[in-house]
Amino acid sequence: MSRFWKITLIVIAVLVVGGVAFRLLHKPAEGPGNGSHHSRQAAGQGGGSGGNAAGGNGQDTPVPVTVEPTVKQNVPVYLTALGTVTALNNVTINPEVGGQLWTINFKEGQAVHKGDVIAQIDPRTYQAAYDQAVAKQKQDEASLATAISTLDRNQKLVASGYVAALNMDTYRNSVDQLKATVVADAAAARSAKVQLDFTKIISPIDGVAGIRQVDPGNVVTTTTAIVTLTQIQPIYVIFTLPEQNLEAVRDSFQNGANKLEVIALDRADAHPLDTTGGLQVVDNQIDTSTGTFKLRAIFNNPKSALWPGQFVNVRLRVRTVQGGLVIPAQAVQRGPDGDFVYKLQPDQTVAMQPVKVAGEVGDSNVMVGSGLDEGDQVVTEGQFRLKPGSKVQALKPGEVPQPVAAAGDKKKWKKGGHRANAD
């Protein structure tokens, strides 16, 4: 058989098979099957109607949301800034006299107190100089005593003519000269005593010792730094604010008797690092390069939670708003026209209410400047399912909504609570 006839037979076979398959797929149902087909169509039409009805009921089902009332309370107004912790005093200890360093009497990182001897320099040379000055003073005091005695004795002999009056002037001048010498000796002795005392290096402040710069046995001079002492109780926090806040800060600082509360928080704004401090100084000029002015607060720092050089977040309370309106922060939504909240209406629907946020109150609330009144109920949870006019089921915080049966489940129950036969 030629190639042409083979192809022809294959094409005919394909056409026959396709025709048979088409006939079988489009064969009309007969008898009971045909009735079932119409029943399914009727059921489908009825189901569609019921579905629309159920859909209508679904739209009327209230959306469960959490609502909270607007409350009135006194609200502190804070200005926030980034601050740097600075030591109250920072003293680098240098010897007043030179010599060999005998001992170091502190541990690095240890707290030292004012008046403590923190190091000792070899005192022997200074002790000898002091002893020498004291001896010289005593020698001149003895000479002065002799001169005074001679003057008194010759004073009695002048009247008898045994001593010339001219010699009396010499005796008097000798006494005065020796008195001056004794005074100079006393000053030299005190100076030598000061030099001797300088061999004991004494802490001038209460503070914490840093890392020492020298070791015992080294020869130190007046330019040698031994250690740096840092006073951290109390301690400063220095921060800056924009110049537009200057007037408000100055007015509150003066009217509040120089007692403005300052809070130092950790870098995450999670919790205060120390007890509340107070504003101490407002700088006398504005930095023209940054448009800010500097402020300094002081903290008692009893637990040493604030450490020199540390960065902290600062809150400065400048005033307190009496009777401010406060709502939870999560109630405020951002829209194309600004901030708004969903406000609960008397008919249990919600409406979009534009609001103006005046500031934060703590970590979870905000103060509303306009748009709400005291007692207004606002939605705090479930806003993503709402639109203006939505009917809602208002719940208190923590309250759980009651479950609602679906429309299909309702059809399975007869009046009186008996379940219908689903077959």
TrEMBL record:
Residues 89-225 form the Multidrug resistance protein MdtA-like barrel-sandwich hybrid domain. Pfam families: Beta-barrel_RND, BSH_RND, HH_MFP_RND, RND-MFP_C. One of its GO terms (cellular component) is efflux pump complex. Residues 325-382 form the Multidrug resistance protein MdtA-like C-terminal permuted SH3 domain. Keywords: Cell inner membrane, Cell membrane, Membrane, Transport. One of its GO terms (molecular function) is efflux transmembrane transporter activity. Residues 31-63, 394-423 are annotated as: Disordered. Residues 411-423 have a biased composition (Basic residues). It is found in: Cell inner membrane. Its main location: membrane. Residues 234-318 form the Multidrug resistance protein MdtA-like beta-barrel domain. Signal peptide: none annotated. InterPro entries: MdtA-like_b-barrel, MdtA-like_BSH, MdtA-like_C, MdtA-like_HH, RND_pump_MFP. Residues 44-58 have a biased composition (Gly residues). It comes from the Bacteria. Gene3D superfamilies: 2.40.30.170, 2.40.420.20, 2.40.50.100, Helix hairpin bin. Residues 130-199 form the Multidrug resistance protein MdtA-like alpha-helical hairpin domain. Belongs to the membrane fusion protein (MFP) (TC 8.A.1) family. This is Efflux RND transporter periplasmic adaptor subunit. It comes from Dyella monticola.
